[in-house]
Amino acid sequence: MTEKYSCDVLVVGAGIAGAGAAYYLSGQKLNVIQVETDHPASGPTGSSSAVCHYFYLDRPLSLLAKRGIEILKDLPGAFDQSGVLWACGQKNEAVNRATVERIRDVEGSRIEGLTGAQASELLPHINMDGITFAAWEDESGHCDPYGATNELVRRARESGVKFLGGRSVTEIHVANGQTTGVTLSDGSTITTERVILATGVWSKALLSKLGVNLPVYIERHFMAVMSAPGIARKLLPHCWVDDTYNCYARPEGENTILIGAWGGGGTSVENEALASDHHKMNYRVDVAGQFDRTITQEESIWIINHLMPRSPEIAELGIRPGYACQYDMSADHVPVVDEIPGAKGLFVIAGSSGHGFKIGPAMGESVAKWALGERQELMEAFSMARFA
Amino acid sequence: MKILVPVKRVVDANVKVRVKADGSAVELANVKMAMNPFDEIAVEEAIRLKEAGKAEEIIVVSIGPQQAQETLRTALAMGADRAILVKTDEQTEPLGVAKVLKGVVDAERPGLVILGKQAIDDDSNQTGQMLAALLGWAQGTFASKVVLDGDKAKVTREVDGGLQTVELKMPAIVTADLRLNQPRYASLPNIMKAKKKPLDEKSPADYGADVKPRLKVIKTEEPSGRKAGVKVKSVAELVDKLKNEAGVL
């Protein structure tokens, strides 16, 4: 059954950014519609490791993380204040120390610098050889990405946002440089002058129909999952990020530990050889959504080997099936967020490059404010123009 | 005592299966494969019996293509001692598999064969029973508990009415149900050790078994899609629909 809707603001997508936008807009006494292809958090959001920290070399990302974590912590049961320990060796020490000072003194977020010995006390089952400095965020941690996103969407709906699930936007209409509405996959139309595309990996294909070449691409990244029945929190009480072996890990409940690896961008990497390996392992996905979500034993082992030098105890646990997700990448690993040139009122949130979950709620909020005419200075760092 | 555990390579339980366009079979090209989950439970039970000192050696066997080697390596990584791949590219059926297994049993002389109660690809639930018949051995199917005592095996079976405990004279056949145990996950060091454990390659002919298919698949279809729901305006309308459309009242 096709319908004709109209609204003040349309939010496309119910990942964490779209959920954040809808949640903010629901408090603005406006007529708001949110469209989602599947269900909230069904895309990359739901398979995020959802480690939430302020530590970013880029100030805008730190500030968005600060606001994002604030929003996430307000959702009952979604946030686990496990703490995040971010360690580095001599090579990154000066930069990381300055970053901690900036985040603590200028941005006012809760973070402190520790020595390797102090880090050892927090994570006794991690070998801190060569760790000279660690950023410690005792009130940060990790989140249930699925629960948090659904709670934001639920609150938005409760406050009047109309949620259209099981439908996607197939066409965006622009007339004389002004966005006028969209057509949905079921043939329905929505008339609106403000559209927020919180469509992440799906944005590029959608915008290409308007002749816009969004500077983003998709990579398949994956996580190893370790079986640690009853001992996950004993072995790893806090989230652990390691600049020296490009590795991160966090407890998941009492029985499981997640391990990931990263190749750099937005944060620092010490091991160039490992970083180059990442481009081979995290191969590109041509069509959003068309990738293998399961991972091979070799892929699990590749991830686990990043943790082996630091914690054989964890790396030698039983290996559960891991999983892959899509990373919405930009060339400089910083998000691409902008009002599309030549389409007034059309905003896009994409290119989150693996930082998307923790900054998502704040990104959605900022872009929603921007769409309502409030200038967002922070968003200037994410402009498409930087690639021109 | 030796324990023999047959394992089958099937489509990974986490993969959404698709039927080939021509309806001849399930699409297997570029699909992730894994050990049949019931067979994992069988392997785990054998390992626990060995850890409890009730068995000395666990032999895993798979009848299938070359890639079934990966499934055997998984079992070896969990803790089995050695593996036999009976290589065939034929689409195997329970009777053919049971005949090969009889040959393996005659050669290896295990005191116990533990199998998954069925494979999640064809859901036949026949191989264990056929093997018991071919060997003339006792069988305890759908096991949720196995206790060995001398030359007796006490097997608790999950039957429709509840639980039934049978006492089998060994050697015997046990087929594993879902609640028998929670299989362990292989660790990295054990995966590495498994690469060095012995894996023999045989053919069905080595055991004098004929595995040619006897069944003909006429058609393979996906389940029909779920119809969209409707909102009813009143309880009366709901009752009417349940009565006249759904036919459940």
UniProtKB/TrEMBL annotation, chain A:
Keyword set, alphabetical order: Oxidoreductase
GO annotation, cellular component aspect: cytoplasm
Pfam families attached to this UniProt entry: DAO (PF01266)
Domain of life: Bacteria
InterPro entries for the chain: FAD-dep_OxRdtase, FAD/NAD-bd_sf
Domain FAD dependent oxidoreductase: 8-370
MF GO annotations: oxidoreductase activity
PANTHER family assigned to the protein according to its UniProt record, in alphabetical order: FAD-DEPENDENT OXIDOREDUCTASE DOMAIN-CONTAINING PROTEIN 1, SARCOSINE DEHYDROGENASE-RELATED
Stated name of the protein: FAD-binding oxidoreductase
Organism: Mesorhizobium waimense
UniProtKB/TrEMBL annotation, chain B:
Needed cofactors: AMP
Biological processes annotated in GO: carboxylic acid catabolic process
Annotated keywords: Electron transport, Transport
Cross-referenced InterPro entries: ET-Flavoprotein_bsu_CS (IPR000049), ETF_a/b_N (IPR014730), ETF_b (IPR012255), ETF_beta_N (IPR033948), Rossmann-like_a/b/a_fold (IPR014729)
Record-level Gene Ontology MF annotations: electron transfer activity
Pfam family, one: ETF
Span of domain Electron transfer flavoprotein alpha/beta-subunit N-terminal: 23-211
The family this protein is said to belong to: Belongs to the ETF beta-subunit/FixA family.
PANTHER family, per database record: ELECTRON TRANSFER FLAVOPROTEIN BETA-SUBUNIT (PTHR21294), ELECTRON TRANSFER FLAVOPROTEIN SUBUNIT BETA (PTHR21294:SF8)
Known role: The electron transfer flavoprotein serves as a specific electron acceptor for other dehydrogenases. It transfers the electrons to the main respiratory chain via ETF-ubiquinone oxidoreductase (ETF dehydrogenase).
Subunit structure, interactors included: Heterodimer of an alpha and a beta subunit.
Protein name: Electron transfer flavoprotein subunit beta
